[in-house]
Design goal:
The protein is an alpha+beta fold. The chain has one domain (5-176): Aminopeptidase (3-Layer(aba) Sandwich). The chain is 32% helix and 24% strand. The protein has seven helices and seven strands. It has a seven-stranded mixed β-sheet with strand order 1-2-3-4-5-7-6, sandwiched between helices. It is globular and about 35 Å long.
């Protein structure tokens, strides 16, 4: 798999002005930064991310309810601010078979491949902890998610007023063949 644009820019120092960190595993210590990131989203971006016109109180409840035993997330920081996050969440207890993808990147850093880079790193973690299938839903106009899902060979279909996609994660050699982390609960402070 080729390097993502943001990864190339990061390594060439082109993202230096934004002080964007390498993607790293997120955890409970990131909840205040995650909350601040979501609160900075515009109304349209909130709808795109949450499928709802989320109020500030709704975003507060979402952040407070993060169940880190049923999710894995990868984030990037720009200075002291969380500026992008990709999350996989699941309902089952124990080893997750199916997980739902959620991605958010600050508007000023979009169209640079940052979401693709986050999803790639997230899929590596997801495969390492045993996620078999990644599901995503997105509204029309959120072409970035559809493009990212297509990059991974997703089966995509229209479901009512939104798109859905499914990636069989463990069938992707570029994701599975990478070095495995020890546990999804380990925090990797690679900033």
């Amino acid at each position: 798999m080729p390097k993502h644009l943001s990864q190339n820019e990061f390594e060439a120092g082109k993202l230096e002005s934004s002080k964007v960190s390498r993607p790293r595993l997120a955890g409970p210590q990131d909840v205040p930064s995650l909350l601040a990131h979501y609160l900075r989203l515009s109304e349209i971006d909130r709808y795109t991310r949450f499928f709802s016109a989320m109020s500030d109180d709704g975003i507060q409840r979402y952040a407070d309810a993060s169940d880190w035993s049923r999710m894995v997330a990868v984030c990037v920081y720009g200075g002291d601010e969380l500026v992008g996050i990709a999350e996989l969440g699941w309902d089952e207890c124990g080893k997750p078979m199916n997980a739902e993808l959620g991605v958010s990147v600050e508007a000023r850093l979009r169209r640079r491949g940052l979401a693709s880079w986050l999803v790639y790193e997230l899929f590596r973690w997801g495969a390492a902890i045993g996620v078999h299938n990644v599901h995503a839903s997105w509204v029309g106009g959120n072409d970035a998610v559809g493009r990212i899902m297509r990059e991974y060979g997703a089966e995509i279909w229209l479901s009512g007023n939104h798109w859905r996609g499914k990636v069989p994660l463990l069938s992707l050699p570029e994701v599975v063949a990478t070095e495995k982390p020890h546990s999804h609960k380990v925090i990797v402070p690679n900033v």
